[in-house]
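DM from R.C. (forwarded with permission)

"hey, sorry to bug you on a friday — could you get me a structure for this? deadline for the figure draft is monday and I only need the backbone to look sensible"
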Amino acid sequence: MDTAKVFKTGRSQAVRIPKRFRFNTSLVTIRKQGDSVILTPVTSQMTLEKFLAMPPIPDFKIDRDAGLSEQKRELF
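My reply, with the result:
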């Protein structure tokens, strides 16, 4: 069974992951299942799925030109 070193860095706790368990990403999800902590690489597919699952934003498209007059600028 492989082991990993747990240490403190500032006020946080960190784990030094052995080389053979390295991730090819800079972001992972973390969840606890019983006494286990599970790390999973975040993929672009996961990010897209989260975005698509978001509820729509009401009144997202607003009329930007409402009440604005045309600005005139002098040319150089």
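R.C.: lifesaver. The mean pLDDT is 85.
me: no worries. The helical segments are 44-53.
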